[in-house]
Write a structure and sequence with these properties.
42% of the residues lie in helices and 12% in strands. By secondary structure, the chain is of the alpha/beta class. It has a 5-stranded parallel beta sheet. It has a 3-stranded mixed beta sheet with strand order 10-11-12. It is globular, with a radius of gyration of 26 Å. The relative contact order is 0.11.
Length: 406
């Protein structure tokens, strides 16, 4: 008869030995977790020494974001402060000797699709060299239903951390489209809402900080599988969402005060103005449970990207789309240039598709695929992309450099 851990139910195996007591058993993972609970403070002083807090400040973090994310200055400032405070809490809290305990502060980013929410999280995770797991909330379902368990987010984080539990426990989890799991109404429904409130409740458990048993290989849990245990107390959770329709909720709360907005600028401009006024009650009306909102202490909003910002996104960041294509062309000894009007035309098309900065790469792929097909035969040429090329009414201009005289 196989033996199981009396605490986490993990089955005894070669890699997961059990200690026996008086009709009870405990596995290695639970012994380690118990050690952390009783001696966590001492252990923490010796662990986590590889992230030097003296190497970055909120201003330096924002400067890193500026290199990759165009615009969104207010959001970048809030985000940089939130990330800085989170890791200061982990690594520097013990430097002030008193009884005050700094609580974890997670982040909620509200903004239209393609406005830079995911990119900000990816950029700082790479800069800080901490693992990051990105998931789409719409793929999550309540345990026992078809879909992905919420705990699988932590499995993904552990895999990104090369199965280093200590490293995963100070990583970042980004949950996108959190607005898509808003419950169907403010009142609890009689029917099961397996991808709405149920998922929010499951997220709440891991966001607030707890010991979570996960399967290192992912998938649904079953009694005979082995588990790893992760403490989520020091994992930074960032949630993002577009929250379409939130403007109507805010307008309803503001009542007649909303009439103060310039009537000629109603529509998306007004929506952006209103988003900056969002309050916790608005999120509750939208369908997020109050307990989850209470764990997302730092809330910031991102603006719709303008045409001018779209052009800057195309050209200015260190890894901008234009720079990437120019490098691809340079490898084949081809010079690639864009007219200013061509860049504006790409930005205009992206705005029409309403997919934010994500649409820029799709449009570029559509424009460049035929040219890239012939690229190996264009060595020595300059390729000039005009507005007519973007609008698919002309071909690129190919310029062959003049031969140098002897």
């Amino acid at each position: 008869m196989s033996k199981h851990c009396s605490f986490c139910k993990a089955q005894e195996s070669v890699d997961n030995r059990l200690l026996a007591g008086d009709n009870i058993y405990i596995c290695e993972n639970c012994v380690i977790s118990a050690y952390k609970i009783f001696f966590g403070d001492e252990e923490q002083e010796h662990e986590h020494t590889d992230l030097d807090m003296s190497l970055f400040t909120p201003k330096e973090l924002k400067k890193v974001l500026d290199d990759f994310v165009i615009g969104q200055d207010d959001a970048k400032k809030v985000f940089a402060v939130g990330v800085y405070n989170h890791y200061k809490r982990i690594f520097k809290q013990h430097t002030v000797n008193d009884d005050t305990e700094i609580q974890k502060s997670n982040i909620l980013l509200i903004g239209p699709t393609g406005s830079g929410k995911t990119l900000m999280a990816q950029t700082l995770a790479k800069f800080l060299d901490v693992p990051i797991a990105i998931t789409d909330a719409t793929s999550l379902t309540e345990a026992g239903y078809v879909g992905e368990d919420v705990e699988n987010i932590l499995t993904r984080l552990l895999q990104v951390a090369d199965n280093d539990i200590a490293k995963a426990e100070r990583g970042i989890v980004f949950v996108d489209e959190i607005d898509k799991i808003a419950r169907m109404g403010e009142n609890r429904s009689i029917t099961r809402d397996v991808s709405g409130e149920g998922v929010q409740q499951a997220l709440l458990k891991i966001i607030e900080g707890s010991q979570v048993n996960i399967s290192p290989k992912g998938g649904r849990k079953h009694p005979n599988q082995e588990f790893s245990q992760i403490d989520t107390s020091n994992i930074l959770f960032i949630c993002g969402g577009a929250f379409d329709g939130m403007g109507e909720i805010i307008k309803k709360r503001l009542g007649s005060n909303v009439l103060g907005f310039n009537q000629d600028k109603r529509g998306k401009d007004e929506e952006a103005d209103l988003f900056s006024l969002v309050e916790p009650d608005d999120l509750v009306h939208y369908g997020l449970i109050p307990e989850l909102i209470g764990r997302l202490h730092s809330v910031t909003t991102l603006n719709q990207i303008s045409k001018e910002e779209m052009v800057k996104i195309l050209t200015e960041p260190k890894n901008s789309i234009v720079k990437q294509y120019q490098k691809l062309f340079a490898i084949d000894d081809v010079v690639l240039n864009f007219e200013e009007e061509a860049l504006l035309a790409i930005a205009e098309l992206a705005l029409k598709r309403k997919t934010g900065a994500r649409g820029l790469r799709t449009i570029m792929e559509e424009v460049m695929v035929d040219i890239m097909y012939e690229l190996p035969e264009l060595a020595g040429y300059e390729v000039l992309i005009t507005e007519d090329v973007i609008n698919k009414i002309a071909k690129p201009i190919y310029v062959k450099p003049a031969k140098k005289s002897a």
